[in-house]
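Q: C-alpha cells for this one, please.
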Amino acid sequence: MTQGFVPPPYPYDRLDKFKPLANKFEGGLVDLSIGTPCDAPTPEIIAALSTSNSERGYPPSIGSDALRKAAQDWMQRKFEISVPTSQIAACIGSKEFVATTAQYMKLRTPDRDVVLFPAVSYPTYEMGAILAGCRPVAVPMTPTGGLDLSKISDADIKRALMIWSNSPNNPTGALDDLAALAAWGRKNVVPVFSDECYVEFTWARQPESILQYGLDGVVALHSLSKRSNLAGLRVGFYAGDEELVNYLKEVRKHVGMIVPGPAQSAAVVALNDDAHVAAQRDVYRHRLEKMASVLTKWSGFDIQLPSGGFYLWFDANDGWAFAERLAREGGALVSPGDFYGSGGANNVRVAVVQPDDKIELVAERLGRNK
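A: Here is the predicted structure, written as C-alpha cells:
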C-alpha cells in the first residue's frame, strides 16, 4: 500500500525533552515558548459570554451583523478605512483560516498550485499549502525582515495561487512593506493575504493594514486572541476584496466554519473597547524590555526589542543549545528558531506572555547563574 501524508511532529512537542530540566526549579517551569496570552479579559467581555442567549441556535457562519459592524468600526478607528460589512466575515480564530484557505483557493483556481509565504514565519502557512496539495514556496526576507518580492521566480509567479504576508511578523517582529506588496499582487494577479493578528502591538510605526492601500486583490486577517486575550474563544475576521471574500464566505458556509454565538457576542464587546488594548500594549512593552535586559545580561547576546509583536527574536548561534541552557539555568522554555524555517536555525524566539511574577522568577534564577 502506498504511504500517504504523514503529519510531521508538531513543533512545540519537540520541546518536551526540556521540561524536566525546568520543572526542577522551585516555582516550576516558566513557558515562554508559545504565544498563549495569560492576562485576563475584561469583566464586560466575560459577561457577554453568558448573557447573549445565542448558544441555542446556529449563528451565521459569516458572523453576526453586530460582529461585522464592530469589525468595520474598529478598522475605521484604527486605520481610517471604510470596508463594507458585506466584505467582512468571521473565522474561527486566525489559525484555521491560515490552514484551510489554500485548499479553497485551489478549488477556485485549479491551474495554479504555488503558495508563497515568508521564509521565516509561523509554520502554518507552509502546512496549509501542504494540506491543500499545493507547492509551498518560501520567499526570502529582505535585510529589514519583509518579503523580498524580487527573489520570486517568474515561473512561481505564474503558478502562484496566493501569497501570505505576516506583519508584524511572527517570530521576528519585522514589519512588511504592505503598500509594495499590494501593488505587486495586483500587477501579477496574485491574491495577497495579509495576516495582521499582531497589528495592535506595533512599536516602530503606526499600526498598518494592507487595506489602507486599497481592497482590490487583497484580504486582511485579524484575530482577537492577542489583542483581547481571547485565544480560547477562537474569534477572528477577514476583510477585503469583494470577490475573494464572497467566494470564501460561500465555501466556508458549506464546511460549517462557524464561530459560536456566545463567542461572537463577546467579540463585539472586545472590538468596541480600545482601552483594554492600550493597557495590554503597556503590559507587553514592559515585559519585552524586562526580558530583553535580563537575557542580554545573562547570555551576552545583544537582544533588541522587536518592531512589532510580543516576541524577542535574536541570533544565539545555536537555537537548540540556547533553549537547553535556558531550561537548565533559568527554568524557562523558549522556541528554537528552526520552528519557523531553516533560516532561523541560529535564532531563538521568546514569548513574553507570562505574568510579571513569572518573568521576575526567571530573572532571579538567571541572576544566580551569571
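A few notes: The first helix runs from residue 19 to 23. The first strand starts at residue 30 and ends at 31.
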